[in-house]
Amino acid sequence: MLPPYTKPHLSFTDQLALLMARGLVVTDQAKAVLHLERIGYGRLTPYWQPFQQLVPDPNNATRTIRTEQFQAGAEFRHAVDLYLFDKQLRLLFLDAVERVEVALRVDLAHALGKRDPFAHRSPAFLDAHRANQVQRGGGTRHADWLTNADRALARSKEDWVKEFHATYSPPVPIWMAVEAWDFGTLSWLLEIAHPNDRAAIAKRYSLLPNTLVSWIKTLAFVRNTSAHHSRLWNAGIVNQPLVPKPFEAPSLVHIGSDLERRTRVYGAAAVASYFVRRINPGSSWPARMKAHWHAFPGMPFAGPVQGGFLPGWEAEAIWN
C-alpha cells in the first residue's frame, strides 16, 4: 500500500528557500518570489526539471532517476525564461492550427455535404469499416463521435444555432454543424470519412490519406497541449506525424531521419509549416517559428535539441 501524501503547505518565500536548499541559484530573491506568486510552483516545475541531477536507477542499470537536487550552475531565472519561451511557442502553434482548423472545416463540409446534407450522421455516407468498429465502451466509433459532435453543438452559444432551432427542426446540416466542432472532433470525422472523400481532401494538400490523418492528429494533440497551457517545448508528442513518401512532401521526409524529430515538437512544427504554406503561401508563420527557435534563451542544461530541433534544422526546405 502506498503511503499518504504528507508534505506541508509552504509560503512562497518558503518555496523559494526549499529550491535554494536543493541547489537552485537565485540571483534576485524578491523577483523570484513574485514569479512563484504569479506563475506558481507547480507550473514552473516542468521548466526546472532539466536542471535537476540524474542518478542511476538502482532497479534498472540502463535507466536514470531525476532527483530533487539541482546541477551546479542551475538558475531559477532560466526556468522562467523557458516558461516564457514555451508560452510564445504555444501561441505560435495556436495561430497555425487555427488556419488548418478553418480549412479542414471547409474541406469536410464541402466533401461530405455533396453526398448528403446530413452525411456526418450516417455510416452509410462514411467509411463503413471504420465507422462501425466497436469501441471499448460498446458503442461504435461513429456513434461515439456523433455523441461528442452533438454535445458540442448543444453547448454552442452562437446566435446562428438559436436561429436554426427557432426556424427548422433538427438535425443541423454538416456545413453549419462543422462551425460548432473543435479540432479534435474534426480530426476524428476525417478519420472515419468515406475513403473517396478522405482521398479528395488529402489530394488538396498533395498528401496520401493516411499521411493527412496522421498529421491532423499530430496538430490536434499540439492544439490541446497549447490550449491547456501545458509544457510543449520538449514534451513528447503522443500522436507522432507519419513520415511522408518522397513524392508527397519531400520537404518533410527528413523528419524520419531521427526519432527525436518526430517524438518531440520539431515534427509538429514542420507539419504546421507545411499546412500553413499550402493554405496561405505568403504567410510569415514559418519564418516566425524559425526566428523563435533561433532566439532560444541561452542557458546550461536546456536547448533546442531537446525539442527535436537538431543541428542544421534551419537549413531544411520547409523553413526556407
Describe this structure in words.
- It is a single chain.
- The chain is mainly alpha-helical.
- 53% of the residues lie in helices and 5% in strands.
- It contains 14 helices and two strands.
- A two-stranded antiparallel sheet has the order 1-2.
- β1 and β2 form a beta hairpin.
- α4 packs antiparallel against α14, α6 packs antiparallel against α9 and α9 runs antiparallel to α11.
- It is globular.
- 34% of the residues are buried.
- The mean pLDDT is 95.
Summarize the entry for a quick read.
This protein has 320 residues and is mainly alpha-helical. It has helices at residues 12-21, 29-38, 41-48, 76-115, 128-131, 141-155, 159-167, 174-177, 183-192, 195-204, 209-227, 259-263, 265-279, 285-294, and strands at 52-57, 60-70. It is built from 14 helices and two strands.
